[in-house]
Amino acid sequence: MGIKYGNCFRSTSLVYAAIAPLIGIFSSFMTSSTTSGNILFILIHQSIVQTMPQLSINQLVASQSAGASTAKAEDETGLIYKWCIIFSLLVGLFMAIFAVIMHVFLAG
Prior knowledge:
By secondary structure, the chain is mainly α. Helices cover 81% and strands 0% of the residues.
């Protein structure tokens, strides 16, 4: 029974590591700023790291920042280009895969 719980707990941390870049993309679109998005969601990452000690706060914030920096294509009026959303989601998917790989191979 303990092994199944441990695998479930590990897979949950993998899912959250994969979601961090997507949170960054969302936060950048929502606030129109990478810094503001990071400030907005850093408390969520800290609370998740407290409940899942196998995650690294540094990795989560780096993944979120990388995701947020892809969502910065706006024109001077603040309209978001439609292709930017598609591009950001594709890059976010790549970053999510990379974040999971980093979590699996670099986790302490």
